[in-house]
Design goal:
The longest helix has 38 residues. The protein folds into two domains: 89 residues; 233 residues, BirA Bifunctional Protein, domain 2. It is rod-shaped and about 130 Å long. The chain is an alpha+beta fold and 344 residues long. Helix 5 packs across helix 10. A hairpin with a 2-residue loop joins strand 6 and strand 7. The chain starts with a helix and ends in a 6-residue tail after the last helix. The protein is built from eleven helices and nine strands.
Amino acid sequence: MREQLEKLKLEALSQIKNASTKKELQEVRISYLGKKGPITEVLRGMGKLSAEERPLIGQVVNVVRDTIKEEIEQKEQKLEELEVEAKLASESIDVTLPGRPIQIGAKHPLTAVIEEVEDAFIGLGFSVAQGPEVEIDYYNFEALNLPKNHPARDMQDSFYFTEELLLRTQTSPVQARTMEQHQGKGPVKIICPGKVFRRDDDDATHSHQFMQIEGLFVDENVRMSDLKGVLDAFVKQFFGADREIRLRPSFFPFTEPSVEVDVSCGICKGQGCRICKHTGWIEVLGAGMVHPRVLEMSGFDSSKYSGFAFGMGVERLAMLKHDIDDIRHFYTNDMRFLAQFKRV
């Protein structure tokens, strides 16, 4: 019996040594230590032994079983270590490879233009005012000298929710609200950037949603020359110190007199080219002196106070500044287009 157990031990240790996977090791465990294994069979036959042999053989069986079990555990640990090493080797990182560049975002060109315009006018003493995009008819039209059924309302085909509630067609309502808040006391010196909405068919130069920046200055003794000086300073800072402006008579219901403001063409330097339609000038914004009726409706004494107002399209400024030929580029989220405006 003793020789048989020693032989089983040597066979088991040999198979443990030759096992190359955890599965093969498990098969050795079951083969020798399982319920149907030879060592278990020996333990079951212990009752047939004499009282003198039983403790001696029992001790030998325990030694053989513990030896086989310990060898299996050690081999299993080695196999696990080899698996980890193989996995680490397969997942190793070559630190000599060049790194992948991180894609860094940038401001949208319209946001950048708005901030540039704000900086220019803040430097001239203006502050930035905001207002609701869903506006009531009174502030969008009536407070700006556009009463019900006024023909000029047809120029701004609007999105109405009800007869008195609409998406604002301009940022001028912010001017009316701000003047009301001042309760007839000047000065009021603000610019109003924001989204506006009109029922236009989308094409290369029109959009149903676009951005505007309007400005307002109300105080005693404000003159047309002040308006020209402010706009000239803005144009030189935004487009370049060599650019000039000119004022042409126009009509807006909320200003009197009203003007269209042109800037000298930066391509031909005023000589005439395809971009400026051979005139040397490009229209950039509308402006004028605040209509006395608008001042009165906002609580200002028009015999004491005067003011000027102006409005410009952000997309138009961006298109002129960056030579962009289609307004739809700003809203299609084409990364090839937007990536051009990243600042190094």
